[in-house]
Write a structure and sequence with these properties.
It contains 6 helices and 17 strands. The chain is of the alpha/beta class and about 300 residues long. Strand 10, helix 5 and strand 11 form a beta-alpha-beta unit.
């Protein structure tokens, strides 16, 4: 007899695995689809120190424990890429590696990838001075010189946060104008330890085992800026296009769902960084997973 899952979760990041814990613990047959490896982006973080009740843990340890917890309740993981899906009917289908999965509910938690600078040194020093989350990693560079690359709201929020704990913050942007609100620009300019480096384009990040400098191009000249960390804030890219028929997207491509994690399609829920939200952190991803799984449980049990 062909198996029909109670819930299939797309994405094995913090949101997806948290949803799996809640769903499987409630007795739902639960399958998680992951195209690469369980854990998501937090795997690249050497230390996590802002998750409640965990003083310090590596991203790998955090993910390993979460994955083991989900598996202990009976969650199964299917590795592969979704090539087709139809979430319209009461029984929904997702095709993974030519294997058709049928399910009563779907929780979409595919995450969102940080846009990269694509310069030499960025990949090498990821987790060793190159970060995509100032609130996650800024405290590791307290009292030191750092830089933020970007010109939008997130870049200015990051720079303002870092200005409060770091010795000096360089804001590097490719244009003299910014996408951030004028009030945010003025607030940052009022900080005594922030230097605007514009118009400048990052060329290279380098150092001996850890970040020690960033090279930027300013017109026909290059400038070497000595820093201990590069915080990249040039936007994120969700991968939600495949599901837009069943879950409405906002103008940025994120799932336009409120805190209840529901969508316009019965039995389809969303969670994590792929959802419209003001804060993308482990704790909010885990919260989304719990909310989405609980909504799926209520949907199934009436």
């Amino acid at each position: 007899m062909e198996k029909i899952w109670d819930t299939v979760i797309v994405g094995a990041g913090t949101a997806g695995l948290s949803a799996a814990v809640y769903a499987a613990r409630a007795g739902l047959s639960t399958c998680v689809i992951e195209k690469e490896f369980a854990g998501g982006q937090i795997l690249n973080s050497p230390e996590v120190e802002n998750y409640p009740a965990l003083k310090t843990v590596s991203g790998f340890e955090f993910v390993t424990q979460l994955n083991e917890q989900a598996a202990a309740f009976g969650t199964e993981i299917e590795y592969g890429t979704i090539t087709a899906c139809d979430l319209s009917d009461e029984i929904k289908t997702l095709t993974v590696n030519d294997n058709i999965l049928k399910t009563k509910t779907v929780i979409l938690a595919p995450g969102a990838a940080h846009r990269k600078l694509n310069v030499p040194g960025e990949e090498i020093f990821a987790g060793r001075g190159v970060s995509y989350c100032a609130t996650c990693d800024g405290n590791f560079f307290r009292g030191q010189d750092v830089c933020v690359v970007g010109g939008g709201e997130t870049a200015f929020e990051d720079a303002l946060y870092l200005a409060g704990i770091c010795n000096k913050v360089y804001l590097i942007h490719r244009r003299d104008s910014f996408r951030a609100a004028a009030s945010a620009v003025e607030r940052l300019k009022a900080q005594g330890n922030v230097e605007f480096v514009t118009p400048a384009v990052p060329v290279e990040i380098s150092g001996d085992g850890k970040v020690e400098r960033i090279v930027v191009s300013i017109g026909e000249e290059e400038r070497i800026i000595p820093i201990c960390a590069v915080f990249v804030a040039v936007g994120m890219q969700p991968e939600n296009g495949m599901f837009e028929l069943w879950a409405e997207l906002d103008k940025g491509g994120y799932f336009a769902s409120s805190e209840d994690c529901t969508t316009k399609t019965a039995g389809v829920f969303v969670a994590g960084d792929a959802r419209t939200k003001p804060l993308r952190q482990l704790v909010t991803a885990a919260s989304d997973g719990a909310v989405a799984a609980t909504a799926a449980i209520h949907y199934l049990h009436g």
